[in-house]
Amino acid sequence: MHVLEADESGRVAVCRADELADGERLLFRVGRRRFGLFRYDGRFFALNGVCPHAAGALCEGPLTGTALPTDEFTYDYGKDGQVLRCAWHGFEFDITTGRSLVDPKLRARTFPVRVEDGAVVVELRPRK
Ligand code: FES
Questions:
Q1: Which CATH architecture has domain 2-123?
Q2: pLDDT tens-digit profile of 36-48?
Q3: Which domain of life is it from (predicted)?
Q4: Which residue of 10, 40, 65, 96 could cross-link 124, Cys pair, CB 3.0 to 4.6 Å?
Q5: Extents of the domains making up the chain
Q6: Which atom of ligand 1 sits closest to the CA of residue 89?
Q7: What proportion of the chain, given as a percentage, has pLDDT over 70?
Q8: What's the whole-model pTM score?
Q9: 3-state secondary structure 48-116
């Protein structure tokens, strides 16, 4: 886990964009707060490392996909690499939105991410 510091406006440069390949993640801490930075489909997403279910290690769980809505007796798998399964009890969250797959009202906190001069910068104020 990388230990980083935020600037006075709450922004933290986590890594260079080319350091994180599609499907990879980087776990980091700022003070006592834990986060995960994910790259999926060429874009970056930052999630709070604390699971909204019971404060487990959300970002340390496996990245997977899920069964997609289909017609009866049809089973399609999709969103491969977009679904984060919490390391503690297995609740699944969409890394692009932070929302739980089974209960959209349950949501992991997400944070805006920008690439600036090749650096991936996370704003540690939660997305509204
Ligand atoms: S703490 Fe994450 S699913 Fe329970």
A1: 3-layer Sandwich (2.102)
A2: 999 999 999 999 9
A3: Bacteria
A4: 10
A5: 2-123
A6: 3
A7: 98
A8: 0.92
A9: ECECCCCCCEHHHCCEEEEEECCCCCCCEEEEEEEEEECCCCCCEEECCCCEECCCCCCECCEECEEEE
